Amino acid sequence: MGRRILIWLLALAGMLLAGCSGTPGGRGAPEARQGVLRLPVLPSVPAEPVALAGEWAFSWQRFESPEWAGAPPGPYIRVPQDWNEQPASGKPPGPEGWGTYRLRVDCPAGQRLALLVPSERTSLRLYANGELIASQGRPGETAASTRAAVNDRNVITRQVECPARLTAHVANYDHRAGGLVRPFLVGSTPSLAAWREARIVRETLLLGAYGLTGFVTFIFWLGRRRELLPLAFTALCLCLIVYTDISGERLLLRLWTSELGWALAVRIEYLSRIAALSLFVLTLYGLYPERLPRRLVAAVLGLSGLAAILVLTTPAGVYSAYAAAGQAISIALGAVAGWFLFRRSRRGTEVRILLLGLVAVLVSLAVDLVMLDAASTRSPVTPVGFALFLLSPAWIMGRRLGLAAYHAERSRALEESARLREDVDRISRHDLRTPLAGIVGATRLMAQDQRLAPDQQAQVTAVRDAALRALEMVNLSLGLYRMEAGTYELRPEVVDLAGVTERVLRDLGAQAESTGVTLHIEPAAEGAAMLAWAEETLCYSILANLVRNAIEATPAGGEVRVTLQAGDPLRVLVHNPTEIPQGMVGRMFQKYATAGKVGGTGLGTYSARLMARAQGGEVELASRAGAGTTLVVSLPRAASSPAAVEAVPLPMPVATSPVQVLVADDDPMTRMIAERVLAQAGHEVRTVADGRAALAAAAQQWPDLVLMDAEMPVMGGLEAVRLLRETQAQAGRPACRVLLISAHDDEAHVRSAMEAGADGCLPKPLEARVLLAEAALLRPAAARPGRSVVG
User: Fold this and answer.
1) φ and ψ at 18, to 5 degrees?
2) pLDDT exceeds cutoff 80 at 255
3) CA 285 from centroid of its chain's CA atoms
4) What is the pTM of this model?
């Protein structure tokens, strides 16, 4: 790929540089001798125009009359070349002054020719056969009377008769190089037009490339405004557009004015060039900030700032004298930047492409440095080098922005997937928790029945414990997802870790017994409390996962030993005699990592560590060769004393007087439990299956307490609560207490309930003690003033 890119760049460079050809002619071309140029045949298309180069007659500090005949008398001066060091007609060394150039072009009599007048670096009036045919500014005998100006880069004059007598009045008080530094071209009008059009096409291609590239990167920046690299690159393209136009054919300048002050034009040219070089280095730094020293970037910006100040505060004759030095410094700094890029990153397509573009810029700068004061009509090559360079960062930024857009789209897809997953989990949890909560509530009521025999009581307790474990697993499924996403809300409490461990071993005892494995627990030192500041459900799940894995890894006849160690943090060690395969040691806690166990998901140790870390703890592997496998669970110790967590029976709340209770839930089990608990306490209970029915029941008899399920058919609980509060306010009814009951207990649902007008939330399964306590807090509506009952 790199070779193809190199070939393509070289081909494009050749095509563009072909349009940068300088003065037509060369060896064999006619040349003026002693003020006369013999042109026996006028060039026509496709022949190139002829440059009026050679010896011109010269008069220093005299504006000769354009009306003259014969061969112009000497002395003579070379054209194209500045007059600074040419001793002719008594001219002293230096760029400033005024004078006249004259040349006779001997072309076939009766034919007509046209001239192409390039933009000189001074003021000029050009006459042919005594008539003014072109001008650039106003030449004068003093600096005050001279006005230099620029217009079109190459002007084709009207046709003149052969032979042609050319007179040029020239004055220079602004530039470092005076005189005719660029030759006039002569030929037929079509041949001159063809030559100029080729240059216009080249410059149009350059301006179009700069404009399109800058526009595209500006659009990129509008979409990602935090990234300044596309904006700097766009500014670089704008500076190159200004520099290329004003130093070239001035296509855009024609849209502004037909003539621009020379001093202003040169100042704009220099400033745009300085800004382009600064933005060029900033673009390199923006692409690879870790590979370019900041001191180098600071040096470039500092030198550019000094150069800009020089251009703004001194005349063109002063700052243009430093053009060669500035060009050389630019090449040196660019070479240093390229060296750092090459040295610090010798691999990668991006860097190779960028280095090729950088080489193109440095070569073009070097060519322009060599040809800085050359007598030629050529345009600078630097814009071509920058055009080649722009391809590389544009490609790199387009590639990076494409990857960024891909990752952003993928991130949005993942977020949407996560949202859908959370919605599915939420719905699943609700649909699972509701019946499980009903089982738990019903078995609690049955366990209170004194008529049950002891074995029946044990069976009811077993069913209740199984339902509680299933309910804990449902809750845990969403908890793990939130732990991965970093959104889990920990609700710690004092947990008896020893009691949780004993419950885990009791629950897994049947599995161990069926595989011939013995479970053994080593309690903490006598009197040492194993009280953790954690969530009991998470602690149970951590230990259950690790002990279950240990049982599955232990051969028949082996032993799984669980050791409790008090301290801060608390530690629980789970040991089995089987060693972990060497390839699994480094992947022990990775998601989906498994050693090939039948039915294994690779989530056991992963989820155990995830749950431990969510509680401020850790799960670590602490095994030695030949000593089996030991997993260590660490959890923060609770500050409370053992007495703080001893179960103290609380008296069942008793209502002083019955209240009106309205229960709205689409689950018949939940309605039955709430009705049974509250009715046994002497309260008047009505039950409905949806929110609309609840509003109708409340309108018929205003309740003291409303238990409203959040999710119901026909009308949900949140909407029903809002409408109930509106009815209460409009009809002036006494405030009833509204509690939203739901399988969801996260903060978002609680906040939604409170915003709808609820007084609180009750999680499922409903507990008898909580229901009776809520009812005991209320006074019957009949005993409150303002009671309004629709019956």
Assistant:
1) -65, -30
2) no
3) 17
4) 0.50
